[in-house]
Amino acid sequence: MNTKTIVIQEFDSPRLLADIGGTYARFVIEVAKGEFRHSATLRCQDYPDFYAAIRAYLDSLKSVTIAHAAVAIANPVDGDLVSMTNYHWQFSIEEMRQRLGFDTLLIVNDFTALAMALPRLGPNQVHQVGGGEARKQSVIGLLGPGSGLGVSGLIPAGDGWISLGSEGGHTSFAPRNEREIAILRYVWKHFEHVSFERLVSGPGLELIYRALCDTDAVPSNDLQAPEITQRALDQQDRHCQEALDVFCALLGTAAANLAVTLGAMGGIYIGGGIVPRLGEYFARSPFRQRFEEKGRFSRYVTAIPTFVITAEQATFIGASSILDAQLRSLNQDPGSAILSQIRRVRPDLSPAELRVAEHVLAHPRAVVNDPIAEIARAADVSQPTVIRFCRSLGCEGLSDFKLRLASGLTGTVPVTHIQVTNDDSALELGAKVLGNTASSILQVRNQLNRDMIERAIDLINHANKLEFYAIGHYGVVAQDAQFKFLRLGISSTAHTDSRLQLLSASVLKPDDVVVISSSSGRLPELLEVAEKARERGAKVIAIAASHSPLVRKADVALIVDHVEDVTTHLPMVSRILHLLVIDMLAVGVAMRRHPQANGVMPGEVDERLDEARVVPRKAAASNQAPGVSLASPLAKLTSHSR
């Protein structure tokens, strides 16, 4: 491995890129855009865990200091804990970042990274197999066999692309002929569920070979996938040749399924560690013929081109692209979502809270590790002020604030908002509205506070009376909430008139609970009823923007930071977010009251309630005792004690 000192050209510091599969861990250093050095491939089995492998690579470089890194891994990435599907490595992203001393550690699915590389590949980095012509700015599909079967896709969005996080390799395998049916029967002896990944992968090629030998009643040799492939290419073994032919045919079926599922008129790309090594054989293999055999949709898929990715560094190109976008996003809006909250509410902070905010914004990583006494000393405030500051942002306390701050600083694929323009077609407008709503939902999900949700559910579950207050466009949120909780058998009322809200709040009792929905959390009428409810001893749950006056007056704050300008248009996304918070509370209360309904969503509860209402009528018609209805689904879902 070459370890000479790196000359930094474009980047402020060299960046580490890694591609981690079930067999090999590949590393490079990117010193300028697209310029990779110090390439190394390590066998995963030689290292006990991911840290040991990456540490061994970094130690070999000696003079290189890394601040930012992106790792593409053959595994779904959802949250902080990464546990590999096809290997035993697992780790916490934030803990790993701290142990390695990086400022940024970005972990993405390997096929998400590979997908993001596709728009950046030149004609000499891919090889077309078969006919068809790609449409510009159309959906692109991606799949590739290796240790597993990776699947992804790209959707055009304005000037960029949205990569799909997919586990499409686990879709159920479907045979196309008698030979494949025989293979399926063989595999069923060993596995209950047979996915495409089970066969269209390195281990899958070995499984196909053994199945063919078993079907022909001949002994199979203990061959690994590379040996089977080489014997097939050298035409040394008939069963190896047939196994590779079947493998390519099944890949053609999987690729065609992906093409029609995504409408991938931009083409289907084949990556992974197997197909690019097959060379000219793959073009002659049954792949393309099987791809085009789609019955009534044969003409449709025949027009879609298929490409083999020949660029060795494609995954690194994609990971680099995602890391670069993340760092640019952090430079434009540095820090996590919670830091964005702090910047937005700075004008409303007290002088003492403002000093805490300025300290957090200036030293976010230090705050993650510093004790409360050190944070208070650095900001020149009391420790209770630090706690009040954290709670005003919807956090349970300092520990919860640090967790949210740390997860935001770890680095993830940024969630974007796409501006609607007058030039958009109806289809583009619809796609942008849906995309922006989805982005906002993901942002709120990242801000969720488990303890606050648990407390809200607990208060509602033990409430003697439940009231929902909202004004104007958010009145539908209160009405929807009343409907949902009435159907759960909870006495609830919705008030959308400020005078009725104040009158109702004036007769509340200590066991009552009020849920107030307000996007801004600043309406004087709602602030007044919140104060009145607290005076009466009732508990107040606020669904509002962080650090708003309403949040300060509430016993429990459920933060939704998506404030829309109601002077220019009707609030759309924020109302959906508030409705989803109500759904979370309804599901939580339903689970608490009816454990036997575990896994039932609100819509399913409604359906079961509707069905259950038939039971008493049937009982009456058959002259059964009224008590029989107590065993009905309605009784199970609605019977409770106060």
Automatic annotation (TrEMBL):
Transmembrane segments: none
Record's subcellular location: Cytoplasm
Catalytic activity: D-glucose + ATP = D-glucose 6-phosphate + ADP + H(+)
Residue ranges of every copy of the HTH rpiR-type domain listed in the record: 336-412
A Pfam family this chain is assigned to: Glucokinase
One MF annotation (Gene Ontology) recorded for this entry: glucokinase activity
Domain annotation SIS: ranges: 456-595
The entry's keywords: ATP-binding, Cytoplasm, DNA-binding, Glycolysis, Kinase, Multifunctional enzyme, Nucleotide-binding, Transcription, Transcription regulation, Transferase
Keyword NADP tagged: no
Residue numbers binding ATP: A18, D19, I20, G21, G22, T23
InterPro entries registered for this protein in UniProt: ATPase_NBD, Bacterial_glucokinase, Glucokinase, Homeodomain-like_sf, HTH_RpiR, RpiR-like_SIS, SIS_dom, SIS_dom_sf
Region of interest: Disordered: 618-642
Record bears the keyword Transferase: yes
Top enzyme class: transferase
Family of this protein: In the N-terminal section; belongs to the bacterial glucokinase family.
Matches recorded under HAMAP family: Glucokinase
PANTHER family in the record: GLUCOKINASE
UniProt-recorded name of the protein: Glucokinase
